[in-house]
């Protein structure tokens, strides 16, 4: 059982190493504009859904010259809600991870990829995993996700 795990681990990383040596263009596939648009819209929709559950009212405590106050604004229909959603979209995009085992725009998803979850499992069992990437950088933002945020 352990031998099979080591063998599969070796085969996975030998194929990853071969892909990396083929050229940097084969190793890093930055997101295209369609993928960026897809995830920005998904995160904006999600943020609007989360903020739409509140019944808050923004009270404006100032008076006009005639003494009448400004009517309160419902938060769900306010500009403030839109500004907060737009300001937080980039941070929400950093929650995504690259899943190299998937293709197309499905390669970006929240949660740890199958490869790295397997690697973390091996490390927690005491296996010495040697890769081109130091262990401290395994959970850092990938170049593809950083470019997704940048775009």
UniProtKB/TrEMBL annotation:
Residues 33-151 form the DUF3456 domain. Its main location: endoplasmic reticulum. Keywords: Chaperone, Endoplasmic reticulum, Immunity, Innate immunity, Signal. Pfam families: DUF3456. The keyword Signal applies. It is found in: Endoplasmic reticulum. Residues 1-18 form the signal peptide. GO terms for biological process: innate immune response. One of its GO terms (cellular component) is endoplasmic reticulum. InterPro entries: DUF3456. The keyword Chaperone applies. Belongs to the canopy family. PANTHER family: CTG4A-RELATED, PROTEIN CANOPY HOMOLOG 3. This is Protein canopy homolog 3. It comes from Lates japonicus.
